[in-house]
Amino acid sequence: MVLISHGTGGSPLVYRTIARHLARNGFVVEMLEHPFNNRNDNTVEGTVDNLTIRPKHISMAIDWFFNSEDFTKVLKPDSVSVIGHSMGGYTALAASGGISTSFPYESFDEKSHLINVTPDYRIKSLVLLAPASVWFKTKGALEGINIPILMLVGEKNRFTPYFHAEIILNGITDSTKIQHKIVENAGHFSFLSPFPKEMTNASFLPSQDPPGFNREYFHHELNEEITEFLLKNIQ
Question: DSSP characters for the chain?
Answer without folding.
Answer: -EEEEPPTTB-GGGGHHHHHHHHHTT--EEE---TTSBSS--TTTTSHHHHHHHHHHHHHHHHHHHT-HHHHTT--TT-EEEEEETHHHHHHHHHTT---B--GGGSTT----B------TTEEEEEEES---GGG-STTTTTT--S-EEEEEETT-SSS-HHHHHHHHHHSS-GGGEEEEEETT--GGGGSPPPPGGG-STTSGGG---TT--HHHHHHHHHHHHHHHHHHT--
